[in-house]
Automatic annotation (TrEMBL):
Lineage: Bacteria, Pseudomonadati, Pseudomonadota, Alphaproteobacteria, Rhodobacterales
GO molecular function terms listed in the Swiss-Prot or TrEMBL record: structural molecule activity
InterPro entries linked: Flag_FlgI
Known function: Assembles around the rod to form the L-ring and probably protects the motor/basal body from shearing forces during rotation.
Entries under Pfam families matching the protein: FlgI (PF02119)
Signal peptide span: 1-24
Keyword Chloroplast (UniProt): no
Record protein name field: Flagellar P-ring protein
Main location group: other
């Protein structure tokens, strides 16, 4: 049976990396910058949201009967502009749509700077193409207005409809405005007044956090300490150039660590295996049963100048093919490369590879987290 080991081990893996859609992660020995695996606590974006109206649509806006909030918004807007006393019968426009406007306010954004916004239909409008967003205040989680948006919108999708057919490409009810909002208020954040800065790892890990601490202390003295698996605190002395210190820290390089994990996307057959994945000694047998059903339709016709009917005679042929199943032993502490080579050697499919990995995990021989998405 040992003679079959090279066939299984060289096979257990290119089913992962090539035609089977599997990707094998290389050994994680590369150093990366701290700025690529962490962020400074408090230096982040803030979500903004607003409610507004898009006008100028070519009959693709909200139907006022089905979207009463759009009608109320139009009435309020016209009253503020000095146009009032309109009845429901007088408002029959289909060129207006109620929308939600969202944006991300970058850290340290200053008054007068511009940000991008996303405009999404709230009612039953079929398309926002060709519309213009009118003045819309954007508020933060605290209810304060931080930006104001207005301008012509750009729609990536389109929709066309005829009497008996229609076609929709993309999402024509969602649009963007590049630099469509102007920042009106700033978020106070004084770096110079801070006595310490906290570095938050995007993927918490005690080993990585300790390596970040050691890298900072080796370069700048004993100013860093690890608080937990996701946070490293850096103390700053008086009259220190905080932005300059942060620029030095984010450029330092460390080798991040990660837990052993196998991620499987069962829908697409994609398998991603981390470099630290190990398999204990286990025997694996992989075989399959294939049933082929072949249908052929024959037509039986009566002889010329005879009484009879044309009859359809189906012909069915069923064949069964069974693959030879052989046991192969995977030795203890099998590395990722040997696992990948083994899967490729036996030529298993993506679904078979997933079944093998799940079975090995169930047997307790796969020393890694198995995540199915």
């Amino acid at each position: 049976m040992a003679g079959h080991l090279p066939r299984l081990l060289p096979a257990l893996a290119l089913a992962l990396a090539l035609g089977l859609g599997a990707i094998a992660a290389p050994p994680s020995a590369a150093d990366v910058r701290i700025k690529d695996i962490a962020q400074f606590e408090g230096v982040r974006e803030n979500q903004l949201v607003g409610y507004g109206l898009v006008v100028g649509l070519n009959g693709t806006g909200d139907s006022l009967r089905n979207s009463p909030f759009t009608e109320r918004s139009i009435e309020g807007m016209l009253e503020r502009l000095g146009v009032g006393n309109l009845t429901d019968e007088q408002m029959r426009t289909q060129n207006t749509a109620a929308v939600m406007v969202t944006a991300m306010l970058p850290p340290f954004a200053r008054r007068g700077s511009t940000i991008d916004v996303v405009v999404s239909s709230l009612g039953d409008a079929t398309s926002l193409r060709g519309g213009t967003l009118i003045v819309t205040p954007l508020t933060g989680a605290d209810g304060e207005v931080y930006a104001v948006s207005q301008g012509p919108i750009a729609v990536a999708g389109y929709a066309a409809q005829g009497a008996n057919a229609s076609i929709v490409e993309g999402v024509p009810t969602v649009a963007r405005i590049e630099n469509g909002a102007t920042v009106e208020n700033e978020i106070d954040f004084d770096l110079a007044a801070m006595n310490s800065i906290r570095i938050a790892l995007r993927t918490p890990d005690f080993t990585t956090a300790k390596r970040v601490e050691q890298a900072i202390n080796a370069h700048m003295g004993s100013i860093a300490r690890t608080l937990d698996s996701g946070t490293v605190e850096v103390r700053s002395a008086a009259k220190v150039d905080i932005p300059g210190m942060l620029a030095e820290i984010e450029g330092l390089r460390v080798q991040p660590d990660a837990i052993a994990k196998v991620v499987i996307d069962a829908r697409s057959g994609t398998i991603v295996i981390g470099s630290e994945v190990r398999i204990a000694e286990v025997a694996v047998s992989q075989g399959g049963l294939t049933v082929i059903v072949k249908e052929e339709i024959e037509v039986s016709q009566p002889e010329p100048i005879s009484i009879g009917n044309t009859v359809i005679v189906p012909q069915t042929e069923v064949t069964v093919e069974e693959q030879e199943a052989q046991f192969s032993i995977l030795e203890g502490d099998v590395s990722l490369q040997r696992l990948v080579d083994g899967l490729n050697a036996i030529g298993v499919t993506a679904s078979q590879t997933i079944s093998i990995l799940q079975a090995i995990k169930a047997a307790g021989a796969l020393h890694a987290d198995l995540e199915i998405i």
